[in-house]
Amino acid sequence: MNQDPLERLRIASQAKRRRGGPLGWILAAVVLVLGGVAWLSIPRAGDDVRTATSSKDLRMKSGTNASAQGKASGGAPGMGMGAASGEAAAGRVEGSVLTAQGYIVARERIELSPRFMGVVKWIGVRKGDAVTNGQVVVRLDGSEYEARLAENDGQLAVARVAVEKATFDVRRATELVRNQVEMQKALDDARLALASAEATVKQVEGARRLLETWVGWCTIRSPVNGVVLERMVDGDELVTPQSFGSGRGPSTSLLAVADLTDLQVEVDLGESDLAKVRLGQRCVVTPQAYRDRRYEAVVAEIAPEASRQKGTLQVKVKIARPDKYLTPELSADVDFVGGAAGR
Question: How far apart are CA 290 and CA 288, in angstroms?
Fold first, then answer.
């Protein structure tokens, strides 16, 4: 019996059900996986306990590291840099009405410069050396002025001989006029010659004092007791008291010297903070390099004029007892303390 071609292409219903079996298993597996993920994502009380315990451990470990760092830097345990910064922001000094940051400076920073163009013959100090008031630190080549001084010695000797000769002439003319051998004019001329010779002596002596001053300028001394902050020249280097307008010209300074026992902190305060500061007010200075050290200070100067560009007013705080830990140009925090003014 011949079968219709369309009937041969038709799929039986039993075959359809057999082929759909594996697909059902796959769908069931996907559903189970999604259900497990949803079950694991549900929060539980045990999870909170484990998280709190871990955070506590981390805090204990962090505190231990901070204590170790504080001991290594010589400070108290728990005084790490982060803790100190937080204290500074919150006002770590009791009674502080304002905390500001500034820079440590020497009250007087003196730069020694030559008075004339010359060559450095000898320099006896280095950067960081302590110097005393009147100590010789630099010698310039003064051979030219010493030669002129020797020349002046000869000129002075000649002038003094001229004075001696004019004195004899005056005595001789006086005797001759008395005996009516010479006229009065001879005596007058002798006296004028004596006065001229004496004036010449004074002129030569004045030139000598100028040359001696120039020779003295070749020896440069420290004007204060302090420390050499900077050395700008070396031996055999040309120096000049003024610049020629070129960066490659001779140096105009020899040394920079400052008294490190007289230090201040320069602070620029905004307009809104000026009402909290007054002359004589007690302060506490904390250098940022040594957060565990504090220094008593007092407001010594308030600038009479503000900076329009920055909108600030400069305040200088004098440190009472500086020590070796305070280095000029390092930054420091200044706490302005309210109440009675410091002495």
Answer: 5
Q: CB count, 10 Å around CB of 236?
A: 11
Rounded distance between C-alpha atoms, residue 122 and residue 118, angstroms: 12
Q: Which two tokens stand for residue 301?
A: 């100067």
Which segments of the chain does DSSP mark as H helices, in order?
5-9, 13-19, 21-40, 45-72, 81-90, 143-178, 184-217
Q: Does residue 46 form part of some domain?
A: no
Whether 215 contacts 148, CB under 8 Å = no
DSSP 272-332: GGGGG--TT-EEEEEETT-TT--EEEEEEEE-SS-BTTTTEEEEEEEESS--TT--TT-EE
Average pLDDT of the residues of the chain: 80
254-286 tens-digit pLDDT: 999 999 999 999 999 999 999 999 999 999 999
pLDDT of the residue at 166 = 94
Separation CA 302–CA 281 (nearest Å): 11
Tell me: do 140 and 154 sit in the same domain.
yes
Q: Residue 168 sits in which domain range?
A: 111-256
Whole-number Å distance between alpha carbons of 72 and 70? 5
**Which amino acid makes up residue 262?**
D
Q: Which residues pair with 256 in a beta bridge?
A: 111, 230
Report d(CA 124, CA 86) in Å as an integer: 47
Number of domains in the chain: 3
User: pTM of the full predicted structure?
Assistant: 0.59
- Within a domain: residue 52? no
CB 250 within 8 A of CB 117: yes
Strand pairing report for 331-337 and 96-106: antiparallel
Residues 134-163, buried b or exposed e (16+ Cβ, 10 A)?
ebebbbbebeebeebbeebeebbeebbebb
The mean pLDDT value for 163-178 works out to 92
Could you count the other beta carbons within 10 Å of the beta carbon of residue 304? 7
